[in-house]
Design a protein that fits this description.
Order of helices and strands of chain A: HEEHHHHHH
Largest sheet of chain B: none
Shape of chain A: globular
Strand content of chain B: under 5%
Distance between the termini of chain B: 170 Å
Oligomer: heterodimer
Largest sheet of chain A: 2 strands, antiparallel
Number of helices of chain B: 4
Number of strands of chain B: 0
Strand content of chain A: under 5%
């Protein structure tokens, strides 16, 4: 009974196979690692199937792949300009990885990789490393201009600068927490309401139990499409913000 | 940063384990006592496998799949642009051909009109000439006919005098029994 209700259980990680230790770090293969590899495998399978026969008049699968391609390319073009397209493979990988991981998590009994803060934080740090690394590589000290907005009266410039610094350093946190909290909360809610439905029936029998299960079941039904939407929107938001941050690295003076 | 996160996770984990009311966690999390999404036990493996799978995916996408899709799109758009170019060129050619045709048609029309006009004029002139000739002929014939009539009348008029004189002579002879000379009758009549 409690097992059915426990909404946290789905986020547990357990080792699969032998313990793999390098130095002090335990790098054992886990169910989370498995889901990451499944995510990669699914993306590769999808693109393998949809791009195997490249025709000028696209098949349905091919046009889905092309629409996704154009979708990400347009996102980069609008958020970070044409020169942002040099990051196209990275942003595309990020978007498609998060999207597939989120959607895979919607399948019952599947582990959601993006529901762990360390995963989303690592992704966010990858983005920030790229932003800072490329920004410094391309602009040198000019990259510091992102903390020094143009067209601000000199009197409040230090204050605005401080805000810019704070906002810059909170970016990886907001980026990772947004995705992680959305996935975590959604899955807990789904599990809770679905668990309630089952509990109602087991506790009160068929007649009043089914009636009582109606509300949580309806909620589960309503939440499921919402969660699919959230899965997409969060992947989109993550990729879009990545583009916005990369735009800073590309043109640090513009604000 | 990583260490800070780990510390945070540890604190959260111990707090969760110690919470007296938290039966769910205490009873069912034998493998680790932390709230799983914060459990630092697995941070290393999570990061390792994430970076590994992400790098793998990035490699495959950037080397194989994205260029494939990009090439197809590029090829299609250049093909479409080519086709559009060809289409507009063909349309221009068609328009040129139509203009040429229109001009040829109007030329031919003008020429035909000229020919018709010339023919009409020459025919008119011919008709006029023949009419003139016919008129002249008719006039000549009418003249000769008139002359003939005049001659005949003159002749008839000159005959009438002698016929009248003879008739008067005969009449006088019948009335008087005496035959006057033709000359006296004639002078009497005149």
């Amino acid at each position: 009974m409690i097992f059915a209700l426990d909404p946290i259980k789905q986020f547990e990680i357990h080792k699969m196979g032998p313990t793999l230790k390098i130095g002090n770090f335990d790098l054992s293969f886990t169910n989370a690692s498995l889901m990451m590899l499944v995510t990669v495998a699914l993306v590769v399978l999808w693109l393998l199937l949809s791009t195997s026969k490249r025709s000028l008049v696209p098949t349905r699968a091919q046009s889905i792949a092309e629409v996704t391609y154009e979708f990400v390319a347009d996102m980069i073009r609008s958020a970070s300009g044409k020169d942002g397209l040099r990051f196209f493979p990275f942003v595309f990988t990020l978007f498609i990885f998060i999207l597939f991981a989120n959607l895979l998590g919607m399948i019952p009994f599947f582990f959601t990789t993006t529901s762990h803060i360390i995963v989303t934080f690592t992704l966010a740090m990858m983005v920030m490393t790229l932003v800072v690394g490329y920004g410094v590589f391309k602009n040198g000290f000019g990259f510091l201009k992102i903390f020094w907005p143009s067209g601000i009266p000199i009197a409040i410039l230090p204050f605005v600068s401080l805000l810019e610094v704070i906002s810059f350093f909170s970016r990886p946190i907001s980026l990772s927490v947004r995705l992680w909290a959305n996935m975590l909360a959604g899955h807990i809610l789904l599990k809770l309401f679905a668990g309630f439905s089952i509990m109602m029936v087991t506790a009160f029998g068929m007649f009043p139990g089914l009636l009582g299960a109606l509300i949580p079941f309806t909620l589960t039904l309503a939440l499921t499409p919402l969660e699919f939407l959230v899965a997409f929107v969060q992947a989109y938001v993550f990729a879009l913000l990545t583009c916005v941050y990369l735009s800073d690295a590309l043109h640090p003076g513009h604000h | 940063m990583f260490n800070a996160m780990t510390q945070l996770g540890f604190q959260f984990a111990s707090a969760a384990a110690q919470a007296p009311g938290d039966i769910l966690h205490a009873e069912h999390h034998s493998e680790s006592e932390a709230f799983p999404p914060f459990d630092p036990t697995y941070f290393a493996t999570q990061i390792f496998w994430l970076l590994l799978s992400f790098a793998l995916l990035y490699f495959l996408l950037s080397r194989i799949f994205l260029p494939r899709i990009g090439e197809t799109i590029e090829e299609r758009s250049s093909r479409i642009a080519d086709d559009l170019d060809t289409a507009s060129r063909m349309q221009a050619e068609a328009e040129q051909a139509e203009r040429n045709y229109e001009r040829a048609l109007s030329d031919a029309r003008a020429k035909a009109h000229n020919v018709a006009e010339a023919t009409r004029q020459s025919v008119d002139a011919e008709i006029q000439a023949e009419l003139d000739a016919a008129d002249k002929e008719a006039e000549k014939q009418a003249e000769s006919a008139e002359k003939h009539i005049r001659d005949v009348r003159n002749k008839a008029l000159s005959n009438i005098e002698s016929v009248a004189a003879e008739a008067a002579q005969a009449t006088v002879e019948a009335l008087t029994g005496k035959k006057p000379s033709l000359a006296s009758v004639k002078s009497a009549l005149n």
